[in-house]
Structures
1.
Amino acid sequence: MDQLFTLPEEYEALRESVRALADKKIQPFAHDVDANARFPQEAFDALQSAGLAAPHVPAEFGGEGADALAVVIVIEEVARVCASSSLIPAVNKLGSVPLMLAGNAEQKKRWLSELAKGKGFSYCLSESEAGSDAASMKTRAVRKGDGWVINGSKKWISHAGISEFYTVLASTDPEKGSKGITAFILEKGDAGVSFGAHEKKMGFKGSPTREVYLDNVEIGDDRRISEIGAGFSLAMQTLDHTRITIAAQALGIAQGAFEVATKYAKERRQFGKAIFDFQAIQFMLADMAMEIEAARQLTYAAAAKSERGERDLTFFSAASKCFTTDVAMKVTTDAVQVLGGYGYVNDYPVERMMRDAKLTQIYEGTNQIQRLVMARNLGIN
Ligand code: CAA
């Protein structure tokens, strides 16, 4: 019983060191990154030199070999001060999990060791007409000799243009629908790969989101990482592992907003006392703390299931993403409320956190899709 619900010491030590790094080297730039919609280069440099830009990469390829819970803690602590920066480890994990799950030894060595050195890895599933209905994608990969020619375009691609590598899902047999999709790795320098304009987003302004255009991209079969036709299932398995990183991000955003709101409530005086002393405010803060803690337990449990590859991972992954991102939206909205007029202007970070929280309810599958995934997986354990 002694250790039940207590994180082993190494995770608390990791949290402490990431928090110190985030407070010192990421937080000071968070406002500027958002205000100028610029890539958080300072965060990337700090994370890369600490081995945290892609901490999940196994040690044999030069990475830290961080397990799923350790990656969650890294992302949570970075998101607590800057959500855009927390996408660096999250996108790198999303882009490379298909390779880790399905690639051969040579492919893993080739791309994972470059990822560990700081080359980014993006994930290209969505298209303009294939968002929630991912299997309806139109991007085509057609056989040419021993290799493939890929044509199409991918939308909403996080870190497009920054990343060196792209996991691309393409239809190799449109008649077969989800059973006719295959996964490939493309490189930024491949002839025929280009990028669209930067999306002008409500939040996560520091993370570039662009379209990826694939115009007669010719590649060898050594770029194919899934079995032919097994790409969609691989894409879904990937999301089972990585939706938890979005939960982690939302958890960090909520925690950050809660801390700002609590500090403010204790300092702000109205009617002759700190507003924290009014029950109306106390109850809001108590609800925030309760919901964040519940979200944390669910997210950490999902991470442990990801690490152990448990049968109910699909349910837990969707549940952690859905629950935690809904909590983040509520907590950040209430944090703005606690700060009143000061919350609505960008002198304080809570309005940024509220804008950032909104995306977590949308990407890596909307929360409506998460509920659909949970419903389809009820009773599996
Ligand atoms: N693991 C393994 N295989 C799976 C699976 C899973 N979790 N989920 C589905 N599959 C398999 C199914 O078993 C099925 O194969 P069988 O017929 O052999 O059983 C096949 O895939 C098709 O599955 P479905 O019939 O369930 O497919 P569907 O068309 O109904 O779609 C969906 C399912 C859950 C709605 C899916 O399309 C989905 O998740 N949509 C949301 C897309 C999404 O999350 N996009 C995120 C983009 S990435 C992003 O946002 C990142 C970023 O910027 C940072």
2.
Amino acid sequence: MTPVRIGLLGFGTVGYGTWSVLTRNCDEIERRIGRRFEVSHVVVKDLSKPRTPTASGLHFTDNPSTVIDNPDIDIVIELMGGTSPAYEYIDRALANGKHIVTANKELIALRGNELFETAKKSDKIVAFEASVCGGIPIIKAVREGFAANRISSLVGIINGTCNYILSDMKDLKRSFNDVLEKAQELGYAEADPTFDVEGIDAMHKLVILASIAFGIPLQKLESIHCEGITTISYDDIVYADELGFTIKHLAIARRIESGIEIRVHPSLVSKQRLLANVNGVMNAVAVSGDAIGRALFYGPGAGSEPTASAVIADLVDVARAMNGSVNTSVPHLSFQYDQLKSLPIIPFNQTETANYLRMSALNQAGVLAEVTRILGDHEISIESILQKSSGHHEEVLPVVIVTQETLEANMQNALEELQVLDTVIGEINRIRIEALA
Ligand code: NAP
Ligand code: HSE
């Protein structure tokens, strides 16, 4: 049979990984689909960059038309990142009758609806497994494997860079910046690493997962609460550990009676929970559904070949579908296109979590009483208080408070009052505590 012809847009961490795995495992992959994949043209931004010598036989160009307008190419793999020009290139490639495989979560989260519409009109596939959780086939699992279920929640660690940073800060006592640099060297971080550490990348991924899980349209980012890990200090990690918790950057999408909660933020997770023990670049997602109960997916969430593994799994699916009509294949967001239903997204201040608060307070009589009074005024009950002293008289002492579950709005109001107390020095650090089922 004739080979399936592929054009690559991007040859960085994931592009190179995809080419390497395709080359290395070509025989094994051919046995799975009965055809060979043939990568011919590769579009990059900077042609003068030295490319790995083993990537011979490829035609490198900075002219996207060589791929997207090339009648000899069947599938375009987009691994450039960003929304533009990626959107325009994919849109044109679809119009030119090509199937698309992409790892670009930002693009799918922000412009997926438009791309799926175009794909549907052109009877072509847009496949995006690699966009969420690197090598873990979480999209396929939720979209196809759990099709029997009414899904109630997805809770997970879905940014490898954040998890790598938090793990190394804890285990190796390294500074945030040192660990971030290492994550960049290893190819885990986004081209702009603020996307990782500010939680934006996890938010993009959660938008995609929530849509597939609940049959809702891809949500606008404004409706999602998003916090990153830049305010987490080594002290927080140590105090959390003493209290029996590990700090994790969590993505949470949960169905409650009145709607859907969608949020991304650091959380204290009990050390006994599986998620607390997911370390380094690994990702994990716990999916709860009425039939399955609870299932946990675990695996490498970023990196060259783990991500390539997901890209190639999509390629295999597309190649198989090329033998029949793609309209009979699985809908992009799992539910039939006319069956996506909007559900109310719960305002973030109406969600409830327990909280960890760390503040520096003057070492004076009555300070703690004032702090606990303010919490009480806002109907916030205290679970435990930790006050650290070296035994010598110090002017300022760290105070760590763990609250019971409380309404986000109450916590925010209490924090505003606490923050302006003369006896509280500097910023109060607050991290939510997620009670995982
Ligand atoms: P990367 O290492 O920065 O590589 C990007 C590639 O795209 C480079 O080859 C670059 O060309 C090319 N490129 C960028 N803008 C271009 C443009 N305007 N025209 C032509 N080529 C352009 O990025 P990556 O880490 O491989 O990530 C690629 C995509 O995969 C992103 O959407 C990312 O979010 C996603 N992803 C990454 C990972 C991961 O672990 N890294 C995991 C899952 C998903 P030059 O080589 O000339 O600079
Ligand atoms: N920058 C992303 C992460 C890559 O660290 O999770 C994988 O999507």
3.
Amino acid sequence: MGSAGHQSSTFAITTPLYYVNGLPHIGSAYTTIAADAIARFHRLLGQPVLMITGTDEHGQKIQRTAEERGVAPQDHCDEIVSGFQDLWQRLNINCDRFSRTTAERHGAIVKAFYQRVWENGDIYAGRQQGWYCVSCEEFKEERDLLEGHICPIHTNKKVEWRDENNYFFRLSKYQEKLEQLYAAQPDFIQPASRRNEVLSFVEQGLQDFSISRVNLDWGFPVPSDPEHTLYVWFDALLGYVTALLDPEDEPTLENALKQWWPINIHLIGKDILRFHAVYWPAMLMSAGLPLPGRVFGHGFLTKDGQKMGKSLGNTLDPFALVDQYGADAVRFYFLKEIEFGRDGDFNETRFVNVLNADLANDLGNLLNRTLKMAGRYCDGKIPAVSPETFADNHPLKDKGSGLAEQVRSAFDQLAFSTACEATLGLVRASNKYLDDTAPWSLFKQGKQAETEAVLYAVLESVRLAGYLLSPIIPGLATAIYAQLGFTGDFNEVTIGQRFGYETHSLWGVLPGEQPLGKAQPIFQRIELEA
Ligand code: MSP
């Protein structure tokens, strides 16, 4: 599955382009962390990778937000965008492209794409009547609304009645082609629950949707009728295409599509599934373009079991979280603790307990105490033990040897928690092995060779764990490698050349006699204030 297996093929992944109605919240951080981890995994595999994120800046919601603040929409967008960029830096997000829908080059791509769809006869003028949720930027069916015409996603907002002349996209024409797509490519929509949701929506019969608005300035004019403004979602989805342009490229579709298209994975939250799994492939079919590899819709985060929201006053501020606990801690908690695809919860006590147990105790202490012993018993060097001398059923060699394949298949399925659990299994086994073999007493008994063999096996297992977890906790992985005497940083985009998966994902890689770095706790235990 996926593109693992052919190392030289390119790999492109996107997060949604986030609305700039406010600073990023934990939901946007969650998608971005996950996309970053996948991108990093593919870099380890040695593939050329393009990780795309960005912002969705047009439409009524943004225009109103700017008006309420009394600032020009572009100034408002610029300000919020710098907040996004700041958070991604703090979270150690290694994105290759940051796509903004207000960029001039994006206008050229939208125009060219619209032209193709227009020439294909898929755009026509009509009349749109219905309930519109400005927060979703989406028309809602009467039957989907809560009592009092409230949007089920934005329960503090009333939907608005619209009755206007709009241009429509002929979605209904693509009914059969979409059904064929879902049948021919069963993993186009993941996980399975999301796929089923889409299938039953499509089964009800697809209706054309309007792609223009009147009485709205903040957006691109409709190329065939500049009195109208292009619907924000039509413009936003194309931001994925614009992102593929190299900085020096002329903004043409040909240039955008030359290297990275089709995108391998669109990572999104479940609330915007329809746009990505139904509207977007139909738009691409209309323009005659190949389709993306898959659309993965993750679940929603709650806090202490409750839906997060400004009105509930229980939002989780990602800036505060990362400032207090650091990027690796935040990344690890969300990817390890929540089964990707399902809803998940944040609870601070649980958060602290997980980090202390897995990162401070199991991983951090293991490395620290083993390094100290290697300092005393092995002259501060990796013991010169040949990995072939370990029997195949040696507990750590045995566990470590199959791990790379397990982790790789977990990453292919975006099963981050499975990848973490499998790797932590080796870490826990190493702790047990250390206690069982007690190298401190072996050393006292003068059993130098046995002592060295034990320490080698444990240090090698920590190395492998650090390596395989590096897409999730790149900072800690870099510290582990440094203390084991390697030069290199897991934030390098060419990491797959320096520490290639073909070798570093195997067990038995540590070179004997390599001088060790200074032993320092890689993750401080967190004390939760009462
Ligand atoms: N602008 C559109 C996307 C256009 S893509 C061409 C948009 N932006 S958004 O900022 O509102 O949402 C971005 C992402 O945040 C979505 O994937 C959404 O699912 C996610 N989340 C918003 N709240 C969330 C949680 N509470 N938990 C997890 N993710 C959530 O939609």
4.
Amino acid sequence: MTAALTTVGFVGLGNMGLPMASRLAAAGYRVRAYDIAVTSAPGIDVRPDVTEVAEDAGAVVLMLPDSDAVESVLYGAGLLAALAPGTIVIDMGSSQPLRTRDLAARAAERNVRLVDAPVSGGVKGAADGTLTVMAGGEPGDVARVRPILETLGGRVLRLGPAGSGHALKALNNLMSATHLLITAEALLAGERFGLEPETMLAAVNGSSGRSGSTENKWPNFVLPGTFDSGFALRLMLKDMRIAVELVEATGVPPRLGGAAVALWADAADHLPPAADHTEIVRRVRRPDDRS
Ligand code: NAD
């Protein structure tokens, strides 16, 4: 830990942010945090005003829902103006890559650095410090915050300039969401054919159809019927839309991705607003359920 980075600001203490901020505090960082909906958290100095997280902070982590929230915190609420020159903002949420590029340029005008470092691995990975971190930014900036990122993730990869991490994170989730959807269809068909879900998963997980959905989501959240992964369906849909926009912008026709977005959007219309993303399986199993 370099002297400059012993104090970390942290904005967004939700499903992911709270366990991540707690890990940083447990690792010895002084964490000053802010969340629009949280007034206290064990071991963390929660401040009533977001600009106070800038105090002495060599780096400020953002773990917010989307680019709108990131911009509202940095521009609207005045965090960017409160940061000392040289501070590194680390946007670890899943934001829009083109808006991240713009943000990096706007921050640079104030000599504030921007690293995008979205994560994969879910709430459990956040609590265990085993997240995969997909970083974008200048090599020197990523190197400076690497100790912070390695406290949070077991695998920290720099992918390229600012926005690169957010681009890959969205594309990863487009793949993940599409896997979960096809798994729901295929396993439902298998069940109707007379096969047991547990037996199918045991076979598929040793076969070429396996994925994070069959290895993690089905056994841990779908089969037990808990649907409590901690990653909201609306956030998954947000990531898929970011990805499909990116796919289109590159000239690749988003034929399967577009179809997947339509099916997830239909699920979002028919499931409760706080539904977990694993509840897409419920929608596939009961497409006529309007509740
Ligand atoms: P969440 O909704 O649980 O938490 C977001 C937090 O941000 C909330 O506590 C909310 O009060 C706070 N917030 C919103 N607007 C704010 C503002 N203007 N100022 C201050 N605080 C504000 O979301 P999450 O599940 O923790 O996800 C955070 C980000 O990480 C998202 O971009 C998501 O896509 C991504 N992500 C989530 C998971 C997961 O498994 N949950 C995994 C990987 C990535």
